[in-house]
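Sanity check

After download, print the first record. It should look like this:
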Amino acid sequence: MKIKLDILAFGAHPDDVELSASGTILKNVALGKKVGIVDLTRGELGTRGTPAIRHKEAALAAKILGVSFRENLKMADGFFQNDKKHQLLVIKKIRQYRPDVILANALEDRHPDHGRAAVLLADASFLAGLSKIRTTHEGKAQAAWRPKAVYHYIQYRKLKPEFAVDITPYIDQKMKSIEAFASQFYNPASKEPATLISNPEFFNYIRNREKEYGQLINVQYAEGFNVMEEYRGDVLI
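Expected structure tokens:
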């Protein structure tokens, strides 16, 4: 696929992006910007559902968000590392799609994959701009490309955001994209083990979190983001 993106959103697991940055994605898609999603893993260690089910759910969520594409790098859930092997997988995607902005996992969170993915994605974003790192796509050499900014969305742990994006017109559509991952959330008929996010109050938690971030910028709903000092950019999202 040959496409130049405005925003490339990464998630350690299918549904990470929807839970924390889907309102921002919807807003930018509505503005005519090109957005893509790349999931690092299939979420195969998740307590509920299966990789096959989550693949279908991720495709439905991508359709709801209106993104240009969604891909999965099939890294090992729970065990991927910030090393050369995994950095090169990300570098190839950054060079393939040449995004101006990367959206990445939270810098710290209760799930260890999230913080580890955050650093992996930030490091790969920098390394993608080094021409002496050689990569290929479909048999052709890839040109170096460094995004202008890497922004880390906030996940379960409530962090103080460095900036917030007004998503008020998109909150209902955001929730629909999250609900696409039906295997992960509350279902009274399910016999699978309960998890933190399968609690029937979890959707209220998401709305209330976005309300809190909205208060920071005097809007009804917002999503919060943080930035590593060395990856600050001047690109608005």
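If your output differs, re-run the checksum step. Summary of this record's structure: The chain has a mean pLDDT of 94.
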